[in-house]
Amino acid sequence: MKLTLLGTAGSEMVPVYGCECSVCTQAQNEPSLRREKASALLEHNGHKLLLDANAPDLLKRFPSGSIDTILLTHYHMDHVISLFDLRTGKGPTIPVFSPDDPLGCDDLYKHPGCLDFSCRAKPFEPFHWQDITITPLPLIHSKLCLGYGFEYQGKCFAYLTDTNGLPPETEAWLAQRNVEWMIIDCSFPPIDCEQLRLSKNHNDINQILDISERCRPANMGLTHLSHTLLEWAHAHPDFFNQSLYLLRDNQEIKI
């Protein structure tokens, strides 16, 4: 089982358009430092499952017939934008598992093309893909949003974006398992004002520390990164270690 991070930034990506901060300036000059919108690819038994569909090169990267299943965290445009191109293609129908959001995004439900949106992911109701048990986990966001826990032969990892903290029931599910990898949203440097922090749609560093303490994952990889978080990280390199670090685009994690 292999997870590849296709993108590790927020909707603004890195570099941010028109920004001249040190992170964005470096990314302008070094393509390896650029970051696309957060999404991932899970490969197992020769099959491919997409976690969100927003990669700018998705159609080129995954020829017709190569995508087995798509798993959506939520229907914000920056996580589903590539579906609008994908649906017009030819080839086998692709099942799309997603939160039970009656609105979806724009006219995807009305004009699905080669996509099948009939599969609804319900909180804590497991389903299976290639012998992997997938459990939808509620998150805290401005739109109905789910993370996912993946279990296979005693191994467990979680993919948790976009979220501002974690609901108690999701924390409890994670704490009851030996989570080898937690891939989790972290968009902001430390926000000291709790009221301001709770008004955001995404985690800050303080929330990451709290979640780590409560859930005790063996490894914690941060995604949905902003340029401001990356600037803070460059100024505080000692904060990170071998079990807590920033993920990067195209990074592969074998589980």
Task: Compose a concise summary of this entry.
The chain has 255 residues and is α/β, with parallel strands linked by helices. It has helices at 22-29, 58-61, 77-80, 83-86, 168-175, 194-198, 205-215, 227-235, and strands at 2-7, 39-44, 47-51, 69-71, 94-99, 115-121, 127-129, 132-138, 146-152, 155-160, 181-185, 219-223, 244-246, 252-254.
Please provide the ordered H/E string of secondary-structure elements.
Answer: EHEEHEHHEEEEEEHEHHEHEE
- State the total count of DSSP E strands: 14
Class by alpha and beta content? alpha/beta
Roughly how many Å apart are the termini? 5 Å
- Overall radius of gyration: 17 Å
- The 3D shape can be described as globular
Sequence of strands across the biggest β-sheet:
6-5-4-3-2-1-14
Which runs of at least 5 residues are low in confidence (pLDDT < 50)? none
